[in-house]
UniProtKB/TrEMBL annotation:
DNA/pantothenate metabolism flavoprotein C-terminal domain residues: 6-227
Residues shown, of full length: 236 to 471 of 474
Molecular function in Gene Ontology: FMN binding; metal ion binding; phosphopantothenate--cysteine ligase activity; phosphopantothenoylcysteine decarboxylase activity
Region (Phosphopantothenate--cysteine ligase): 11-236
Biological process, per Gene Ontology: coenzyme A biosynthetic process; pantothenate catabolic process
Protein name stated in the entry: Coenzyme A biosynthesis bifunctional protein CoaBC
Family: In the N-terminal section; belongs to the HFCD (homo-oligomeric flavin containing Cys decarboxylase) superfamily.
Role according to the record: Catalyzes two sequential steps in the biosynthesis of coenzyme A. In the first step cysteine is conjugated to 4'-phosphopantothenate to form 4-phosphopantothenoylcysteine. In the second step the latter compound is decarboxylated to form 4'-phosphopantotheine.
Length: 236
């Protein structure tokens, strides 16, 4: 496969939502279906990239889009710790890293080794103590390989376009990424939906793309911005 504007470019994509176990049968999770990240992986492969897709708890029906694509290697992960270690290993060989996964900010402090039983709690509702997870994106930026292009997503519940961009710009500064794809999320938007509405911010906080459409259309607009970053890095 040597056609396309990302021919031969190695791209690492994370997708889906991490889950943090509470006990052997329960977890804390989020509603990410993986559709947006899988669309990024499929679009990158269609443009010639060699893709590693770290898939956090994604349904096989969603993964079907890339399952038979020889240019996409799918690696399933469960917890944030698993995503953290596999992402760092895979990032070593990647020219581009795109973190579309919804990562749990907290995990359960003490995972019970047996099912927490209602009859053991003497009528009191149990309390879960949480500890903060590492920020994978921040550490990937800290350990950036050469002139690697690193892209984050930001999922925000907001009241207005201004608030969306303002929160996006703050997150951009905190994470230190080259590009940040900002999407408004809510009960119906972003997570699980077939469509998405995204602004892509560059390092200066300028909007370099605004696209509302299918998750594949969003993926291609994001990859156009990535292509521009690669061209800039490769220009003499
Ligand atoms: O999967 P879908 O159903 O298609 O939904 C798509 C989506 C809404 C999940 C996706 O478009 C999206 O926004 N993904 C990022 C969700 C998210 O967790 O955003 P955040 O604002 O909490 O995190 C910002 C960035 O930091 C993300 O790139 C995230 O991967 C990364 N992060 C966050 C926390 C953490 N501990 N480590 C991280 O690396």
């Amino acid at each position: 496969r040597d056609r396309g504007d990302l021919a031969g470019v190695r791209v690492l994509v994370t997708a889906g939502g991490t889950r943090e176990p509470i006990d052997p049968v329960r977890y804390l999770g989020n509603r990410s279906s993986g559709k947006q990240g899988v669309a990024v992986a499929a679009a990158a492969a269609a443009r010639g990239a060699e893709v590693v897709l770290l898939a956090a708890n994604i349904d096989t029906s969603v993964l079907a889009e890339v399952a038979s694509d020889p240019a996409v290697r799918v690696v399933p992960v469960g917890t944030t710790a698993e995503l953290d270690s596999t992402a760092h290993a895979a990032a070593k060989g990647a020219r581009v890293v795109i973190m579309a996964a919804a990562v749990a900010d907290y995990r359960v402090a003490d995972i019970a080794d047996h099912k927490i039983r209602k009859e053991d709690s003497a009528g009191d509702a149990p309390t879960l103590a949480l500890v903060e997870n590492p920020d994978i994106l921040v550490s990937l930026v800290r350990e950036r390989q050469g002139d690697q292009v690193i892209v984050g997503f930001a999922a925000e519940t907001v009241e207005s376009e201004d608030e969306l961009l303002e929160r996006g710009r703050r997150k951009l500064a905190r994470k230190g990424v080259d590009l940040l794809a900002v999407n408004a999320v809510g009960w119906k938007e972003g997570f699980e939906a077939e469509e998405n509405d995204v602004r892509v911010l560059d390092m200066d906080g300028d909007v370099v793309a605004a696209v509302a459409g299918s998750k594949r259309e969003v993926a291609d607009a994001l990859l156009d911005a990535v292509r521009d970053e690669l061209d800039f890095a490769e220009s003499p």
